[in-house]
């Protein structure tokens, strides 16, 4: 997969593209990620990429010319152009999974007050990472890139996304590591006894409990199996006590 990120601030990506799992994935050629400086595409003599809005109003608007020229110079029939905007549809794990199937993603980061509306005509998808407004699309582009790249083949251990929060629709169960007793805080006995059936039962039940307590909306949107219903009834009774 190739990801091209169009931004006015390519230096913001230096740490992101060089460290940790994303840095390793790039070094191991699991993904190619480029930053493209939008300013390199302006034909405006002072290098401007933005201007004041027609009709008045606060702030500056990204102009069509540099964005159209930039996107048209890199897009192919295989590309998907995604605009980072708080007006986009809410990004979630299921979208990250779908996007892993694409060969070429172009992520367009805005800055200032927003985009000239005509830019939307060359965009395939608009994504928001949440109901808050950031100073630009760079952090959303990093969040979206990170969530996609970690799902690509060979980037992290194959079964470690199996229990990820949201990928199985519910939140992940609580996790522990050594020591078994830390200053009197104990790891649940069931996780240490080596009984894999019991451990799987515990994980499912505690995933359901977390979801019930923290994100009941996820339960409403999912058709529970008979087993899940039974376990959830037990959890509801326990939590009422
Ligand atoms: N640009 C500014 N805020 C944003 C958000 N919440 N999501 C995506 N892009 C943005």
- For CATH, the homologous superfamily of the largest domain is named as SPOUT methyltransferase, trefoil knot domain
CATH topology descriptor of the largest domain: Alpha/beta knot
- According to CATH, what is the class of the largest domain? Alpha Beta
Structural class: alpha/beta
Describe this structure in words.
The chain is α/β, with parallel strands linked by helices and 241 residues long. It has two domains: 2-158, 3-Layer(aba) Sandwich (Alpha/beta knot), CATH 3.40.1280.10; 163-240, Trp Operon Repressor, Chain A, CATH 1.10.1270.20. Helices cover 34% and strands 18% of the residues. It is built from eight helices and ten strands. The strands form three sheets. The chain has a five-stranded parallel β-sheet. The chain has a three-stranded mixed β-sheet with strand order 3-4-7, with no helix packed on it. Strands 9-10 form a two-stranded antiparallel sheet. α6 crosses α8. The termini are far apart. The model has no long low-confidence stretch (mean pLDDT 96). Bound molecules: adenine (ADE). Adenine is lined by residues 84-86, 110, 128-130, 132-134, 137, 140.
């Amino acid at each position: 997969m190739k990801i091209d990120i169009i931004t006015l601030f390519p230096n913001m990506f230096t740490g992101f593209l060089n460290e940790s799992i994303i840095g390793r994935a790039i070094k191991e050629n699991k993904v190619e990620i480029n930053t493209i400086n939008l300013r390199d595409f302006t034909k405006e003599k002072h290098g401007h990429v933005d201007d004041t809005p027609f009709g008045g109003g606060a702030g500056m608007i990204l102009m069509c010319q540099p964005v159209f020229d930039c996107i048209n110079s890199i897009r192919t029939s295989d590309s998907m152009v995604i605009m980072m905007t708080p007006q986009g549809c809410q990004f979630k794990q299921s979208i990250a999974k779908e996007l892993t199937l694409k060969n070429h993603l172009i992520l367009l980061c805005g800055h200032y007050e927003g985009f000239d509306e005509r830019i939307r005509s060359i965009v395939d998808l608009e994504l928001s990472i949440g109901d808050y407004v950031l100073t630009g699309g760079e952090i959303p582009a990093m969040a979206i890139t990170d969530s996609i790249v970690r799902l690509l083949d060979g980037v992290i251990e194959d079964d470690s996304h199996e229990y990820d929060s949201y990928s199985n629709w519910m939140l992940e169960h609580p996790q522990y590591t050594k020591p078994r007793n830390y200053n009197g805080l104990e790891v649940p006995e069931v996780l240490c006894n080596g009984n894999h059936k019991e451990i799987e039962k515990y994980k499912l039940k505690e995933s359901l409990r977390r979801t019930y307590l923290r994100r009941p909306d996820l339960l409403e949107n999912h058709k529970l199996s008979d087993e899940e219903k039974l376990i959830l009834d037990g959890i509801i009774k326990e939590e009422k006590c």
